[in-house]
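If you are new to this repository, start here. Below is one unmodified record pulled from the training split, so you can see the exact layout before writing a loader.
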Amino acid sequence: MLAVPPEPPHASLSRVVLITRPEPGAIETAAALSARGLVPLIAPAQAIRLLRSSLPPASELQGVLFTSGQAVARLGAAYHGVPVFAVGDATAARARGQGFVEVRSAAGDAAALAALVRTRCRPAAGPLLLVCGRGDGEGLAEALRGDGFRVLRRVVYAAQPVHSLAAPARRALAEGRIGRALFFSTASAHAFAAQVGAADLAAHLAVVEALAIAEPVAVALQGLPWRAVRVAVRPTMESLLALL
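And here is the target side for that same chain:
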């Protein structure tokens, strides 16, 4: 975990940015913030638990769909030759880094991913493997099945709420040293709300700006007394960081 170093009295509040996403992804986000001259503070609102899942042979597939970077490492080298369709650029980059050879990014959300698949795949060419987290990808799978695709949805991880806000984040929030907070999912937003409520720190959010990756995430944040809530233009990490 990256603790916030002591800030000089004249330091801008906006320099310290809270990262609520879990690994993998939190360290990547922290590096991007540091490159912008900001001070990252990692305090995941969720923890990832890997799940066993029965996967079809790679030879039977015409494509693999990733709705989150969390799922990428769950497919081994046997699948690296299968074309990959990723929801966004960060997930696509993670797939390339893991060794997948043919990777395309929808650069958007689940609807954009479905549109990309429709342009690149054919229902008769074989099944699509959708690798996702518990509770994710159901709408995407149903939309593509409605177009005649055979979609094999496999749940390979579960995101669970972290019930206690990490100590460095509690201190920084209580001392007014956090200027902005990043939220990548509605589940993380709800979990964070529970964390600050349990720590009796909600009032300290009055000086913090919440940055949400999409409108549903912003809606989940509305019950807290933020200085402001802003939403990324597109549901990607790049667009979210552009708000900084």
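Two things worth knowing about this chain: The first strand starts at residue 16 and ends at 19. Residues 1-11 have pLDDT under 50 and may be disordered.
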